[in-house]
Automatic annotation (TrEMBL):
This is Molybdenum cofactor biosysynthesis protein. InterPro entries: MoCF_Sase_C (IPR005302), MOSC_domain (IPR052716), Pyrv_Knase-like_insert_dom_sf (IPR011037). Coiled coil: none annotated. PROSITE patterns: MOSC (PS51340). GO terms for molecular function: catalytic activity; molybdenum ion binding; pyridoxal phosphate binding. SUPFAM superfamilies: PK beta-barrel domain-like. Residues 18-168 form the MOSC domain. It comes from Streptomyces longwoodensis.
Length: 180
């Protein structure tokens, strides 16, 4: 399975959106260099309020560009970086990957998938009603999160738009993604 990076984004300040960059550098065990969510321990405000010593399983946020097309069909215009992701992808079923999947990106970066992004109400502050487009329910009433996946950096490197993403699934049995 392969995909491609279509955009990279980072922000050194807490903000819902992240500006696009020519490249980002991911640092092993830390996250995106200069990004407010990088660190060994949690950096998302809600998680820090619960327990600031817990490990940061949300170092790098990836979102599939195909989501923008789906929400666009419902009248929402979303561009890369606007939902706070660090890496926008195309051609991969990110939400279908199991926990522990390794994403080899570009020449040397390796990310390990940890779980699903749990979108917050801030999304409605960005565009009213968008939260219902990225969080829904399946036919059994289970919550379905569609706003991308979270990962940790196993091997550092530079990530650029146009970089290939090579997916390496973990040995089975596979665990489906859950919110982190």
């Amino acid at each position: 399975m392969t995909g491609v990076v279509t955009a990279v984004s980072s922000n050194g300040a807490y903000s819902f959106t992240k500006p696009n960059r020519d490249s980002i550098r991911v640092l092993a065990g830390f996250g995106v260099e200069g990004d407010v969510h990088a660190g060994v321990t949690v950096k998302h405000r809600s998680r820090m309020a619960q327990d600031p010593t817990q490990p940061n399983l949300r170092q790098v946020h990836l979102i599939h560009e195909e989501l923008f097309t789906k929400v666009g069909a419902h009248g929402y215009e979303v561009a890369p970086g606007e939902l706070g992701e660090n890496i926008t992808t195309r051609g991969l079923d990110l939400l279908g990957l199991p926990v522990g999947t390794l994403l080899h990106i570009g020449d040397s970066a390796v990310l390990e998938v940890t779980g699903l992004r749990n979108p917050s109400r801030q999304i409605d502050g960005f565009q009213d009603g968008l939260l219902k487009q990225v969080v829904g329910r399946d036919e059994h009433g289970n919550v379905v999160r569609k706003a991308g996946i979270m990962s940790v950096v196993k091997e550092g490197g530079v990530v650029r738009p146009g970089d290939t993403i090579d997916v390496r699934l973990p040995d089975g049995p596979h665990r489906p993604l859950d919110r982190v």
